[in-house]
Amino acid sequence: MPTELEELVGFIAHPNPSIRKLAAENLVPYSTENPSIFKTEDLTPVKHLKFLIRDIPEIAEHAITILINLTGDPRVLEFVANDDRFVGILLGLLVDPKEPNANLLAMLLANMAKHDGLKSLVTRTQPAPEGLGSHELVLNQLLDLFVRGADGSYNKHASYDYLAYVLADLSKHPEIRQFFLAEQAYDGVVPLNKIKVFTEHKSDIRRKGVASTIKNVAFDVPAHPAFLDEDKVNILPYILLPITGNEEYPEDEMMSMLPDLQLLPPDKQRDSDPTIIQTHVETLTLLATTREGRDLMRNVNVYPIIRETHLRVDDDGVREACERLVNVLMADEPDENADEEDDNRVVEV
């Protein structure tokens, strides 16, 4: 005989919307406290919840919230992320400029992006809404939503901040790293250049996701010249500014730094999140994989910034990352005629 909770779960499929709404609303807390009630009958309740994301906004809100909580379970995640039709429905709703639950949908997609199967988005297309000014490739639409969401100019209900986590998880896949580095024909912009400007955004979600995305794409060593080229990606200022505080440097040190790092205002603050600082330092270490990268960082005097970061950020992870980078930058270089095979190998940090 089913328990009262199990009966309540059954009501999320009731034909009466008032009953569905009441059931979904009351079940939200149980999606974290007692998630097993949604995993009965071969995940039939989860199947019903997937239908409800297109229900009236009040019901859809609760259904999406429950799915966000449940997709922390690998079994539920696989069940949801492998449903191609459901993925298409979610993406269609996400790009709707009037979708009231767009931020929740972005959170759900962020969970789903942890599933390796979502790398199929690299080739997935759907019609682009006219007002978005994007392209049929879903990845381009996600990027353009993310950019437009920063000022709320596309959907008044959504900031799309959680798409930063979607992009970060997707960028773990080599084929999607290639997308981030390829100029897009529809707007002539390299996707990485669209997101690098958010490394100092007020949203810690944006900053964290963008920092991780940049780091993941930096595992593509052949792309490092483009990363460092002032006329292409020019990534160094966007990595160094977030880890720089209001320290005063001797004039000889400061004048060798990048122009963006010179004469910063006295109220300049480095990022408040040590994990983001650590990620940026690790990206610098990846970019120091090649002789070109190391030489550039020495020429623009990256070392004093790392020295001050190591001194002022009370976090073991940050300090260890700084020490690894300093060891690379301060090491003697081998003879230029020596075998440079090591320059083309990246070890994950």
UniProtKB/TrEMBL annotation:
Coiled coil: none annotated. Residues 94-278 form the Protein HGH1 N-terminal domain. InterPro entries: ARM-like, ARM-type_fold, Hgh1, Protein_HGH1_C, Protein_HGH1_N. Residues 283-336 form the Protein HGH1 C-terminal domain. Transmembrane segments: none annotated. PANTHER family: PROTEIN HGH1 HOMOLOG. Belongs to the HGH1 family. This is Protein HGH1 homolog. The lineage of its organism: Eukaryota, Fungi, Dikarya, Ascomycota, Pezizomycotina.
